Amino acid sequence: QTPQTLYEAIGGEPTFRRIVSRFYQEVAADEVLRPIYPEEDLGPAEERLRLFLMQYWGGPQTYSEQRGHPRLRMRHAPFSIGPVERDAWLRCMRIAVDEEGIAEPYRQRLWDYLEMAAHSMMNSWV
Ligand code: HEM
Questions:
Q1: pTM for the whole thing?
Q2: % pLDDT > 90, the chain
Q3: Which residues, 6+ apart, have CB-to-CB distance to 91 below 8 Å?
Q4: Residue 49: CB within 6 Å of ligand 1?
C-alpha cells in the first residue's frame, strides 16, 4: 500500500513536530534570525510553522482553520528578509531536516520546496 501524501510517507505529525522543534532550537541561537522574531516566546511561531507545513504536505488543515489563507509573503512583509536572512533560515532548516533522516525521494522533495519557499519569501536584496 503506497502512502498517499508526503505527510503520511514521512511519518505524519511526530516527524513535523521534531523537524520544526529542531529548527526553532537553531533559530533561538542564531544571531541573524533570533532578533527578527518579535515575540520573546518562540513557541507560537513554532506551532504555526509546524501546522503550515503539515497542511502543505497533505496533513490536517488545522493551519487554515486557525489562521485563514496562508498569504505567507504578506505575513513576512513586516520583516526584512534578504539573502543573509534566507541563508540563515535555510541553514537552520537544513540541520533539522538532515537530522530527521528522511528517506528519498521524500527528503529531496521536501528540501526543494523549502529552498524555493525561502527564496520566494525574500523582500530585500541587501
Ligand atoms: C512567521 C521569519 C521563511 C513560514 C514568521 C515570523 C517571522 C518569520 C519573523 C513571525 C513569527 C510569528 O509567527 O510569531 C522568516 C524568515 C524567513 C522565513 C527570516 C527566511 C526566508 C519562511 C518560509 C516558510 C515560513 C520559507 C514556509 C515554508 C512561516 C509561517 C509563519 C511564519 C507559516 C506564521 C504565519 C502566521 O500564521 O502568522 N516567519 N520566515 N517562513 N513563517 Fe517565516
A1: 0.96
A2: 95
A3: 26, 30
A4: yes
